[in-house]
Amino acid sequence: MKKLITFLIICSITLIFLTGCNDIEDDNKSLISKIEEELNYLDSEIIEMLNELNSISLTNYDISIKEVTSQEEQSGATSEKTSSQESSRSDDESAEETSTQKESNIMTYEMIPNNILTKKSEINWGELKTRIENLYSTWSVIVLDLYEANINSQDILDFSYNIDNCITAIKNEDKITSLENLAIMYSYIPKYFSNFSNDSQLTKIKTIKSSVMNAYSLVDIEDWNKINEELLKAEDVLVSIINDINNTKGNQFSINKAYILLKELQTSVTTMDKDIFYIKYKSLIAQINIL
Question: pLDDT tens digits, residue range 241-264?
């Protein structure tokens, strides 16, 4: 009997221990999944702000919606009314007019091409100021999850420092400094992924995008040597993905296409033509985003 009781106690303790371990494991998975979503949000927002600084959209067309109001007037007969009748009218009746207007709202839609060579040159600083402020509000939440996941604290502090610099640059409508700080901010995303993610290919893809963003941020100041260096870094990482025989993503064709587009982007460095670079950059980033 004593052996049976001892056995039951041991089984109970073991069950409690295993249940506790499962709960911890589930919590960790939940935290990792949450951080991945948060970092993907940062990825998207930072790249969109970088693109906005050169009026670049990754979509081929925008839809312009306009509301047109048409009015049709119908004249009505005017009848004489005595002063006593006028004084007895209600407030609603007094609002009636001898002519009636019919209004109808018509929505018109127009497809506007998002081409590099025909793009608008003006920067929408108002939108950028809204975006960076919203990103900062979100960052104040993300930072808590990063600390909980034991991400390198200095990397977290450095991102906070650079987001402050970026806010100042965008507030001052300083394009060059805004590009620089946004690219630096993006560079921390692959660092964060490498700290907690077991998906090495995803971390490499973020690293490739970081190098491409660094190159893109230098086009305005025409530092073509540095641009070429960054693109070569991106190529090295992409080649390591291509050569990875353990690649189980099933997207070898997409990876090969990204490599071809990256090589195309590298050739634009020799022409030193900004628009040619942006055209090829747009195709490359759109392709990398689907890897």
Answer: 999 866 655 688 899 999 999 999
